Amino acid sequence: MRRPVQGFPHLGLTRRSVLKAGAAVAAVAPLAAPSILRAQTAAVKIGILQPVTGALAHDGDLGRLGAEMAINEINAAGGIKALGGAKLEMLFGDARSTPEAGTQEVERMQADGACAIVGGFASPICLAASQAAARYDLPYLVDVGVSDQIMARGLKNTFRFGPGFGKVTTVALDNLTRMNELAGKPAKTVVLVHEDGLFGSGLAKLLQTELPKRGFEVLETIAHPTPARDMSNVALRIRSLNPDLVIPSNYYGEFVLLARTMQQQRIKPKGVYAVLGGAASNGRFVKEFPQAAQNVIDCNHWHDPRNPQALALRKAVQEQGKSFAYNVSLNYSNVKLLADAIERAGSTDRAKIIEALNASTFAGHIMPYGPTKFVNGQNEGATPINTQIQGDDIKVIFPEAYAEAKANFPAV
Amino acid sequence: MYSPQIILEAMLNGLMTGAVYALIALGLTLIYGVLHIINFAHGALLTCAMFAVWVAWAWLGIDPYAVIPLLVPLMFALGYGLQRFVIGPASHGDDGNILLVTLGLSIVLENVLLATFQSDTRTLDTDYSFQVVALGPLLLSFPRLIGLAVAVVVTGLLWLVLNRTDTGKAIRAVAREKLGANLVGIDVPHIYAVTFGLGCACLAVAACLLMPTFYVNPRIGGAFVLVAFTVVVLGGMGSIPGALLGGLFIGVVESLCGLFLGDSLGQLGIFLIFIAVLLVRPTGLFGAKA
After folding, report:
1. Domain span including residue A106
2. Does the distance separating the beta carbons of B139 and A265 come in below 8 Å?
3. What is the Rg, in whole angstroms, of the alpha carbon atoms belonging to chain B?
4. Would you say the pTM of this structure is higher than 0.90?
């Protein structure tokens, strides 16, 4: 395993290399010294792209937090050792919740000397931003964007550490079928609610063809725009159809609005099973609207609950008074993955970093994926898991190997 | 097919949303009726009022409904001042100029809000935001019901002001015949400014009614103003009952289209009506013949 050894031994190494550099400086003519000093300590600039204003501001904020925490941790542990302990420097770009702004920020970050970019969050932003980065052969690590289109273009610079639609849907359906069987098959009918963009529509289409194959009847598929002004009509339609299961795929604001409107209209299906639900595994939702959030199940990105590093991160985020969500873990892991690649490349050369990412078998992340293995840019081991909001906490309920609590299904 | 109960509920939802559309259209139609100008800054002024409600709630902890008595005079004063000291003088008596001035004003206002509040979408949360009133088997949103009631009351009040007070008489006189009104001693610039102020006061009320269930960002006004234009055209330019009925009707159309065609296409019906009215009855339901 090419995972870098972490902890104090390396600090010693760094100190030694610093001493060596110092000796070199002393030995060389004074005039040459500044350039050598600069060469030794030049920061490694990495671009962090997140929508921190606009409709997706809440998610972007969490993504930035995760990236920041990883950068601080790496720097505190001595930076990139292969580059003489060079520190990581964050070049931040605000994607302002639109693909256009994301592209502009990529142009700016590449001009400012970023050696790689991490982030994007929403599928349309990732799609546009990675394309813009490809023009400069700039490595781009998609943090969340799940649309399968992102990885289907064969861009050499684009990597996705997390799972895409296809994978998430398959796992979500397998887990749902299994959970339903374990509970004595209480759920038969389903209503799909999805946002009408790249992410929601693509997912709904997949679910629509796959659910009937597993014995579920899709009563209706309801689309809504982002941002949505009102969910009354959606709730009315759900009420008239009276399904056993509601499967929503949308972003934070709309998910909260839907859950609250369903609560208001006293709609109580046997389960709300979100696939990549925008709020269903978000601490803020649980904290602000505990009643509407109760028993919502999500199949989504989530950290490995047995990983002590993940638990420490979750605690650190909550101690800052912020809510924890998967974006934090994903961005944290992506930055660590990138740092490992830069370490192994021993350079900030973009082509060398891409090469190192392709050969990556990184296991120092906090997701339940195992060591990374990129095939055409997609991490093969990436997988979502199931969580459920129980009380004031988000618990992993499925698969059994990771479960922290038993699924409350059908919801009582 | 949906059960009659669901359709009825969707219609009632539409009526309640439509009441707020009506209130926004009321300000627009009043300003058109008297000043004979389309106020392009209407949306931006609504956004300003909505941010004021949000600020009062988030920073000062004042309930959105309690803001009504504070915000109405404030927005009236803002509207009065804008017409008296900015739009009026800048127009140099040419209606074409007024169009451009209000358009410019809307761009300035939007960007000031953007610079101050960023493009984030903000919401406020009250205890009653998601409360319902059970009417038999129907569940109606409490804040929207309040919205409907207040909108009807405000329309009534405005009608009374125009028909039963001296200022109202003066406003109607100026609307009918500007020169004649001036000859009998009515201060026309003052009446213009009062009318603009009244239009803005309507927006203040609309903003207070919207915020408990809605969100605000610097560009939100545009979404409402397009609907309000349709309402004004449907109801007849300058007609107050027309604005109210037009608003309610448009609300119902939007809601039913949303139910049957999906929310992504909900507004389709509104603009089809807009085009149909322009083709078939350009004066609208209650408009005077051109």
Report:
1. 8-162+305-381
2. yes
3. 19
4. no
